Amino acid sequence: MGNKTGFCSFFFENKNLFTNDAAFVVGPIGLVLPYPVDMMKTNVAPKLKFALAALFSFLILLSPSPLVLAQGLGQKPPKASVPALPSENRLRAHIPSHLFDLASPEERAIFAKAEDFFDQGSYALARSYLKDFLDNYPENVLLPDTFLLLSETYSELGELKQAVATIKTFLDRFPLEPRVEIVQLRLSDLYFKLGNLEAIVSLWEAKPGLPDSKKLVFEKLANAYVDRQAFLNALDILIKRKALSSDPIDEVLIQHEIELLIREKLKEDGLQKVANQFQSTYPADLAIIQLIHLYDLNSNYYRQEKEIRRFLSRFPAHPYVIQARNQLDRIKEKIKSDRYLIAVVLPLSGRLVHFGNKALYGAELALRLFKEALPMASVGLVVRDTENDPSSLRMPFEDWLNEYAPVAVVGPLLSKEVERISPIIEKANLALITPGATAANLSGLGQSVFRNAATNRFLCSAIAEYAVLQLSIERFAVLYPDEGQGQRWVDCFAEGVKDLGGEVVLSESYPLNNTDFSKTILRLKKADLEKNGFIETIELEGGKEEKLYIPGFEAIFLPADAVRAGLIIPQLIFHDFHEVKVLGTNSWNTPEFLNLAGSYAEGVVFAEGFFKGSTNPIVQGFVHQYRTRFQEEPDLFAAQAFDATRLVLAALRGGAVTPEQVKTAIAGAIDFPGVSGFIYEILDGEVIKEPFFIEVQGGEFVQVN
């Protein structure tokens, strides 16, 4: 206490050092201490400066990390005030007499007249005189001041862009002029008024030196970006501002600003960007700590554990390491605290991490909505990355299942992973619902494997059924790529239309590397004319005739990717297939397809497993919740994992309490309103549901069923 009393007495005895511009720092246990930011520029004795700096540094070292302190005590370190940029009249220094005398009497008279008009507030007249002066005396000695005064007249007249252009001319022509620094500050002020913050960053990053002016500008820039809610930009500027600091207390104040921004402004995606951008350097450590805290609050223990391990690998000597390791030890107990666990097994690293993360988000959202509806439900997720050790997945996975005893498994995405773990699943009598595996033989893996995924065969059969039953088409042609998958599309489609009374009358393949499909289309046309197609002659006015090709089929199926389809469809129209309905695959569901095909895509139809533009209220609700929660768009894997998790949750809600009961409930599910299609029933492990049929109307994708 004696030391603290003496310290406070020192401030009262030396209160003349502390002005209204004093900043404050937060010391241990919330002690707020004033510190004169400009002290180091005063005539205070060097020993006194050193003593103050050392004392503040010591107090700060005694404090916990500012980020941790803020989270623990809820304190907000006060922000240092941001000095205003220099006022406009600082540009108008008096011209030295020896320079003024070098000008001719006419030059002096015109310039003096312009100054008089400016001082009187007659800015339009001042501008007119100055512009005439530049036209008549383009190389006079008063040129620098002429540009400066002209820029001020533009500014007063509200012509800010012209003011900027004039100052930039000054800087280009007089780079060594003594007032360059203050002119740059004035230019920054104009950019602030115009809202062009990026120009200010470029202006000062390109200039070496000038640390004091950069500090002023960067502090104001950071606040402007915060006002725009461009928090990552604000953080970038604050880091640049920190690098300019040579005063330890000033540096700590900026660190507090950075930590406050990370803790209170950045959301999950922003924190991830900071952690990825700065890797093993400051402030990536703060971003990862905040992610750990965020995931802990949301009971997202898989991601919390992942961030802790990332932190430990990047910052092994960090003061937070001990706390991080303690949290890591407690995560397993936290996961097991839920009575019912759903295992989620997905590729969460490696080349498929994007799809795995989408599916995990879908599962997390399903659980989140379930617990919002039933707040007391003791249900959680336990998550496993299939990419951790694929070569020895079986035994570790079995141990993992025994450790957490889940009631069901959602995942994996790949057929090979499902095949690898299916014997373990069957032995444990668990239900496994894959939201992505497409292999034809999954139904033969046992009674425990279920599939909620839109396979090519499912979509192929769906578009065939839609064409025959809804569009009343009987005769079809197929144009397909010359490779194994292309032939499988042909066989599937032909089988589908045949079962419903239709017929594929022609099929023609094209090489995979083609970009010009004219030869293939002409071969198709020739084969059609030899079989069912014909040429009809139409008489026009004036005795002229026109030959019109009438295809012998009503629709053409194109199992091609978006790029090839976007190239083929316009060429079909060019070769007279005007009235033929074009049917496709879900790979067309991209903006790229619409851009390539243009207006020629009008009326094409394809089947899809998920359509985020659906008018179905259930789908709309899912898309809205997903966007709000994760700040990105859901995809097919997210929707299918969402529904797979909901099937398990529905079983629990219906009274199932054991893995066997959950599996039985899933197998008997009927009339389930899924966002990846309405589920009619589950037959031999396959989810039987209605796909989305999408048609291009007015240049946009529209659901037509």
Compute the number of strand runs.
19
Backbone shape: flat
Strand fraction: 5-15%
The residue-averaged pLDDT reads 86
Spatial strand sequence of the major β-sheet:
9-8-12-13-14-18-19
**First and last CA, distance:** 78 Å
Flag low-confidence runs: 1-44, 46-66, 72-83, 390-394
| Gyration radius, in Å | 36 Å
Helix content: 40-55%
Which class best fits the helix and strand makeup?
alpha/beta
Helical region count?
28
How would a crystallographer describe the biggest sheet?
Answer: 7 strands, mixed
Topology:
Elements (H helix, E strand, L loop, with lengths): L1 H12 L9 E4 L5 E4 L10 H17 L3 H8 L23 H6 L2 H16 L2 H14 L6 H14 L3 H14 L6 H15 L2 H9 L5 H17 L3 H13 L4 H17 L3 H11 L5 H14 L3 H14 L6 H16 L3 E7 L6 H21 L5 E7 L8 H11 L3 E3 L4 H14 L2 E4 L14 E3 L4 H15 L4 E7 L2 H16 L3 E8 L7 H12 L4 E6 L5 E6 L4 E3 L4 H13 L6 E4 L6 H7 L7 E4 L8 H14 L5 H18 L5 H9 L2 E5 L2 E7 L2 E4 L2 E6 L2 E4 L2
Parallel strand pairs: 3-4, 3-5, 5-6, 6-7, 8-9, 8-12, 12-13, 13-14
Antiparallel strand pairs: 1-2, 10-11, 14-18, 15-16, 16-17, 18-19
Helix pairs in contact: 3-13, 5-6, 6-7, 7-8, 8-9, 9-10, 9-11, 10-11, 11-12, 12-13, 14-15, 15-16, 16-17, 18-27, 21-22, 24-25, 27-28
